[in-house]
């Protein structure tokens, strides 16, 4: 008689096990075991996108981490990223709370960290129409070309001196954006004149980048937030006060007309001021705080990302001189050597576009996407994603996935040409194998401008100069290590000697 209870118990155990495996409504994605209190924070290491890629290789392309008291899911393959950013895009349309948005970006009144809803749509519409539409980009094309031409003259004037290329690229991208946004430069124009306000603004942008790349423990363990153990909050508040003062001055100068001769009613700030009382979005009027937060977003997101991408591209071409020569031959054929390349030439420069795509793949400017948060629980790849989970997409890992790319660590632009493995790859958020600007509702609003600026700068640097490394360094020994931050910076800045390859009058005539 004892066999019957035993069989019943065995059957019950099998039923429970099968039922758990088949239903498992709360089965979280795999991941490393968390530590007490701090969770998986120690697993992030000094370069999180590297550490998370290694964890994905061990646990799978969909990871679950516990950072402090916050559920975090990480997408590390194109197929998983597509489920989050396409299938479940609406559920992950908002940003999680963070100290940077609270203390620097006007308490979430900016575009980047604003909650998904009417106010966010209004701000995005303003940018899309007045700054990033095809018409606006075409109207301001001459400004970008003028600033790039100024950069070439600065590089020609450098002679045999060593230049820090990334720094000069950043000056160029910032001035080009500032002339559109404010009607004037914020940095020197290359003539050597000092500008204390421009120097101050540059210092503030650099400091913001540093703070944005820091981990603030209070974001993940709320009970410790008020203690500000690392002093991050104090630094953020101090930096916000400096930015606010700077932006207030610009705002008041525009309103009063005392802007030093800047062309009002053309630049974005004049448009924003005009929209202040009659913004036509669902969210209502546009406040001064929203205007300043928007300007802050554009300056931070629209300058360093482009300049760092171009710096990586030139570094790769220096390491691969045969690719540089091939790109220069295409440039000489399509553009010639008696004028500088323009944006109108870019569509004909097939190999140049492949170089830019390969740079976006191998060196994405934002290696970990800006975080999103789930509004409701959902299921991805059969796993439960809890409500309130933070989503990170490891753009860097996806673009180096050996299942998707042949020899993924090699810089090989031909993979994007006819006959290559991804000849029709679209970097505008449609092909999830390479998504340097993100995808879905929260895709980078300035993507079109970023593409134009990066392509024009890379094309101009390729056409206008041959490149030698400082101190006679062998290109094969060039350090290509990464430094983690808000954007993917080089661990060591690219120090070069530019050698003009066009007649000098070409640089002076533009």
From TrEMBL:
Domain of life (superkingdom): Eukaryota
Record-linked InterPro entries: Cyt_P450, Cyt_P450_CS, Cyt_P450_E_grp-I, Cyt_P450_sf
GO molecular function, one term: flavonoid 3'-monooxygenase activity
Cofactor(s) needed: heme
Keyword vocabulary terms for this entry: Flavonoid biosynthesis, Heme, Iron, Membrane, Metal-binding, Monooxygenase, NADP, Oxidoreductase, Transmembrane, Transmembrane helix
GO cellular component: endoplasmic reticulum membrane
Principal EC category: oxidoreductase
Listed pathway(s): Secondary metabolite biosynthesis; flavonoid biosynthesis
Membrane topology qualifier: Single-pass type III membrane protein
GO biological process: flavonoid biosynthetic process
Catalysed reactions, as listed in the record: a 3'-unsubstituted flavone + reduced [NADPH--hemoprotein reductase] + O2 = a 3'-hydroxyflavone + oxidized [NADPH--hemoprotein reductase] + H2O + H(+)
Compartment(s) of residence: Endoplasmic reticulum membrane
Binding-site list for heme: 444
EC number assigned by the record: 1.14.14.82
Major localization listed first in the record, in broad terms: endoplasmic reticulum
Classification via Pfam families: p450
Family per record: Belongs to the cytochrome P450 family.
Primary role: Catalyzes the 3'-hydroxylation of the flavonoid B-ring to the 3',4'-hydroxylated state. Convert naringenin to eriodictyol and dihydrokaempferol to dihydroquercetin.
Name of the featured protein: Flavonoid 3'-monooxygenase
